[in-house]
Amino acid sequence: MTSLQTAATTAADVMNRDVVTLDARASLHDAMQIMTEHHVSGVPVVDQQNQCIGVISTSDVVSFIEADLEALESEIVRTENWFNPETQKWEESVFSSELLGEYDSVPVSDVMTSNPLTVLPTQPIANVARLMTSRGIHRVFVVDEEKRLQGVISAFDFVQLVAGH
């Protein structure tokens, strides 16, 4: 790919249009299931108009679990190791039976990151890459002028772009 082709490439050219989403009223358990089933580390949260209002990532889930565990005075049942694709490191988390039972009652809106980074479909892909790099994030959501979700661009999409796919 020449630099001229890259300069003309927009977010719409690179984005993945087949995006799994969650409603803010979905449970944390639902979010974890969706991420596991679809092998993704983050899912956009949309409202009833399909407007992107947040994102829930594995980092958000782990941070929530660890904060909740500190508040629990129950016995820890087990620890789990997991690979965090955002930090590219293996991490360890502890889980309790009480906490596992709470996942169905915790709404995604309590755990998600609000106001995720979004770009318009016409945004040059080089600008998208600079935004992602400067903010240290691994995904950006492509939305229309009304903030309705159109697609997602992940760091892996840039790898595919460079590889010529």
Relevant CATH superfamily? CBS-domain
Average of pLDDT:
82
Total helix count? 7
CATH class category: Alpha Beta
| Count of all domains | 1
Describe the secondary structure blueprint for this structure.
Blueprint: H1 3-8, H2 11-14, E1 22-23, H3 28-38, E2 42-46, E3 52-57, H4 58-71, E4 78-84, E5 89-95, H5 97-102, E6 113-114, E7 118-119, H6 125-135, E8 139-143, E9 149-154, H7 155-163
Parallel strand pairs: 1-2, 7-8
Antiparallel strand pairs: 2-3, 3-6, 4-5, 8-9
Task: Jot down its keywords.
37% helix; 4-stranded mixed sheet; 7 helices; 9 strands; 165 residues; 3-stranded mixed sheet; CBS-domain; alpha/beta
Describe this structure in words.
The structure is a single chain. By secondary structure, the protein is of the alpha/beta class. The chain has a single domain (3-163), classed as Roll (CBS-domain), CATH 3.10.580.10. It is 37% helix and 25% strand. The protein is built from seven helices and nine strands, in the order ααβαββαββαββαββα. The chain has helices at 3-8, 11-14, 28-38, 58-71, 97-102, 125-135, 155-163, and strands spanning 22-23, 42-46, 52-57, 78-84, 89-95, 113-114, 118-119, 139-143, 149-154. The strands form three sheets. The chain has a four-stranded mixed beta sheet with strand order 1-2-3-6. A hairpin with a 5-residue loop joins strand 8 and strand 9. It is globular. The chain starts with a helix and ends with a helix. The mean pLDDT is 82.
